Amino acid sequence: MENKQATPFVSLLLEDNYSDFADFYGCNKIKIYNAILKLFQHFEKSNETVLTLKIDAKITNIPWDTNFTFDVTKDVEVLKRDLLPFYVDSEYYEVASEILRLTLALNKKNNKRSK
Question: For residue 4, which of 11, 40, 84, 89 sits 20 to 30 Å off, Cα-Cα?
Answer without folding.
Answer: 84
